[in-house]
Amino acid sequence: MPEIKIVTEVAGRVCALAIEHGASVGDGDEIAFVEAMKMEIPVTSTTAGKIKAILVEIDEVIAEGQVVAIIEV
Q1: Is the model's pTM score more than 0.85?
Q2: Tens of pLDDT along 18-41?
Q3: ∠ CA(66), CA(10), CA(45), 5° rounding?
Q4: In what order do the strands lie in the sheet with 39-44?
Q5: What is the pLDDT of residues 31-72, one digit of tens each?
């Protein structure tokens, strides 16, 4: 099955995860929130599918362009 990597557009600290491994997501659904510049910025799905892996943890500092999750379509 094809896999889609979901990446963050900003560097910061993961402050919340909105989904769990194995959950179904739709295009535009929120996957995680990254705190940057005193704002919580959502990381959203770019396609519908099932969460195959979540590659970050709450309070983890991540870089711009880092893969946050993998979706199986």
Answers
A1: yes
A2: 999 999 999 999 999 999 999 999
A3: 65
A4: 39-44, 30-36, 12-17, 61-62
A5: 999 999 999 999 999 999 999 999 999 999 999 999 999 999
Judged by DSSP in three states, 67 sits in strand
Residue 17 identity:
L
**Quick one: tokens of 30?**
């929120």
| Half-sphere CA count of 49, side-chain side, radius 13 A | 20
Burial class (CB in 10 A: 0-12, 13-18, 19+), 18: middle
Q: What is the 3-state secondary structure (H, E, C) of 15-59?
A: EEECCCCCCEECCCCEEEEEEECCEEEEEECCCCEEEEEECCCCC
